[in-house]
């Protein structure tokens, strides 16, 4: 069988380190075109990865019948129009998170996919992580008993990205920490729980720590440096409570809090036990306990995932970090077989509805009732964290 021809739209960091790299390493796919408004950036990556064609305009892809699928790695506010154009041109689409700026755009993307019989997939890559699926299996197998509550916390010390740029401009990004990080965690929670229906959402969002952008202190800045003449009108903290047809879900998320580090926890409480998705930390603790190393030695995790402790070696940590290639292989296989990849789920719009509710109503401290909400045939939300 011939390789599937793909194109990548947008040649920034996520395209370079994830999409382009994994397509290049996949023996079932071949990148035919790279697109970026700054075409020189596309040309540079094309030379590095031996891609034959580049363009500054994604519309060059639409008339190319050889290209079966595209990855969209552009700013959030461009996801919907580009995805809809590609779907209407008969291309399968893998779009970076978030799916779009709001639910209305998401539904338009979904309608285009359904109308053209094409797969629209949002990069929820962590659904392929071994740790996530271990917890999902434990829940489905009844190891925790009846799961009645999920606690989710995703917080960092001073991590507001690209201050004053697209990340902190709501018209460009759609939101702050909830859109950037929250989509990942909420998607994994609903996925692990078997997609319970969302009944009500209540919460608060705050944009406090960088109101005075010049006074905001930070150690380093993803997508920086800051643009002090830019805009900061998104949330840097969110807290919420989601009532579902199954467990309740409470969440706290922060781009920036004075906590001195990154703290990501997903705790699942059931009648017969509780589990936290801190599998990487647990594995390192287990290795520490095995001893036979000099006092004060700490485990070192290499780029390939292998762990070294003193002169001892341990197998690679695979709870997270190896799911990217799985997503691209799965996408190829399901495009060719007309199936649906793991990250394609009808009920994914539930986590979208929760996010939209918090962003739309959080500042008013009101409960947003979803009693009339019905899942559609879509599969939209999120990416990787």
What secondary-structure arrangement, pairings included, does this model have?
Blueprint: E1 4-9, H1 13-25, E2 29-35, H2 39-49, E3 53-55, H3 59-62, E4 67-72, H4 79-88, E5 92-95, H5 103-116, E6 120-122, H6 130-140, E7 147-155, H7 170-173, H8 177-192, E8 198-206, E9 237-244, E10 248-254, E11 263-270, E12 273-276, H9 279-289, E13 300-301, E14 307-309, E15 312-314, H10 323-337, H11 349-361, E16 368-369
Parallel strand pairs: 1-2, 1-4, 2-3, 4-5, 5-6, 7-10
Antiparallel strand pairs: 7-11, 8-9, 8-16, 9-10, 11-12, 13-14, 14-15
Helix pairs in contact: 4-5, 8-11
Distance, first to last CA: 34 Å
Tertiary shape: globular
Largest sheet: 7 strands, mixed
Radius of gyration: 21 Å
Number of spatially distinct domains: 2
Q: Determine the strand fraction and express it as a percent band.
A: 15-25%
CATH class of the largest domain: Alpha Beta
Q: Quick one: how many beta strands?
A: 16
- CATH hierarchy: architecture of the largest domain: 2-Layer Sandwich
Order of helices and strands: EHEHEHEHEHEHEHHEEEEEHEEEHHE
Written overview of the protein:
- The protein is of the alpha/beta class.
- The chain has two domains: 4-126, 3-Layer(aba) Sandwich (Rossmann fold), CATH 3.40.50; 127-279 and 321-334 and 344-369, Dihydrodipicolinate Reductase, domain 2.
- Helices cover 32% and strands 22% of the residues.
- It is built from eleven helices and 16 strands.
- The chain has helices spanning 13-25, 39-49, 59-62, 79-88, 103-116, 130-140, 170-173, 177-192, 279-289, 323-337, 349-361, and strands at 4-9, 29-35, 53-55, 67-72, 92-95, 120-122, 147-155, 198-206, 237-244, 248-254, 263-270, 273-276, 300-301, 307-309, 312-314, 368-369.
- The protein has a seven-stranded mixed beta sheet, with helices on one face. The chain has a six-stranded parallel beta sheet with strand order 3-2-1-4-5-6, with helices on both faces. A three-stranded antiparallel beta sheet has the order 13-14-15, covered by helices on one side.
- A hairpin with a 2-residue loop joins β11 and β12 (273-276).
- α4 (79-88) runs parallel beside α5 (103-116) and α8 packs antiparallel against α11.
- The longest helix has 16 residues, at 177-192.
- It is globular.
């Amino acid at each position: 069988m011939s390789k599937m021809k793909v194109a990548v739209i947008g040649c920034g960091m996520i395209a370079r380190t994830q999409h382009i790299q994994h397509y290049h390493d996949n023996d079932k796919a071949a990148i035919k075109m790279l697109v970026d408004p700054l075409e020189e950036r596309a040309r540079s990556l094309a030379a590095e990865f031996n891609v034959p064609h580049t363009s500054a305009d994604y519309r060059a892809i639409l008339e190319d019948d050889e290209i079966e699928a595209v990855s969209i790695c552009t700013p959030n506010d461009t996801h919907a129009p580009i995805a809809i154009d590609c779907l209407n041109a008969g291309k399968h689409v893998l779009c970076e998170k978030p799916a779009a700026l709001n639910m209305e755009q998401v539904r338009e993307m979904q309608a285009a996919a359904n109308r053209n019989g094409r797969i629209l997939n949002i990069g929820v890559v962590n659904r392929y992580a071994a740790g996530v699926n271990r917890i999902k299996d434990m829940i489905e197998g009844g190891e925790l008993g009846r799961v009645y509550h999920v606690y989710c916390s995703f917080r960092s010390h001073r991590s507001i990205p690209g201050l004053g740029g697209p990340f902190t401009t709501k018209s460009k990004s759609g939101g702050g920490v909830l859109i950037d990080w929250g989509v990942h965690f909420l998607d994994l929670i609903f996925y692990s729980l078997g997609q319970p229906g969302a009944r009500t959402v209540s919460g608060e969002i705050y944009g406090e720590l960088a109101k005075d952008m010049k006074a905001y202190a930070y150690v380093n800045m993803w997508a920086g440096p800051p643009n002090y003449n830019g805009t900061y009108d998104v949330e840097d903290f969110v807290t919420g409570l989601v009532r579902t047809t199954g467990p309740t879900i409470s969440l706290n998320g922060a781009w920036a809090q004075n906590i001195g580090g990154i703290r990501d926890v997903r705790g699942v409480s059931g009648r017969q036990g509780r589990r936290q998705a801190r599998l990487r930390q647990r594995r390192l603790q287990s290795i520490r306990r095995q001893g036979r190393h000099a006092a004060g030695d700490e485990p070192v995790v290499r780029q390939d995932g292998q762990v070294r402790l003193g002169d001892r070696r341990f197998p690679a940590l695979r709870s997270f970090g190896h799911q990217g290639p799985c997503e691209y292989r799965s996408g190829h296989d399901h495009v060719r077989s007309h199936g649906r990849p793991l990250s394609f789920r009808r009920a994914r719009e539930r986590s979208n509805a929760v996010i939209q509710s918090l962003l739309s109503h959080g500042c008013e401290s009101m409960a947003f009732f979803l009693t009339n909400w019905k899942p559609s045939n879509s599969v939209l939300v999120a990416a990787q964290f």
